[in-house]
Amino acid sequence: MAKGMILAAGQGTRVRPLTKNVPKPMVPILGKPVMEYLIEHLARYGIKEIMINVAYNHYKIENYFGDGHRWGVTIGYSYEGVRDHGEIVPKPLGSAGGMRKIQDFSGFFDETTLVICGDAIIDLDIGAALHEHRSKQAVASVVTLEVPKDQVKNYGIVVTDTNGHIKSFQEKPSPEEAKSNLASTGIYIFEPSVLDLVPSGKTFDIGSELFPMLVEKELPFFAQKRFFNWIDIGRLSDYWSVLMRVLNGEVAQMDMPGKEIRPGVWVGPNTSIAWDSVQIVGPVYIGSSVRIDPGASIIGPTWIGHGSHIKSRARVERSILFEYTRIADGQSFSEMIVSPQYCVTRGGDAYYVGDDECILRWGDARGRI
Question: What DSSP designation does 235 have?
Answer without folding.
Answer: S
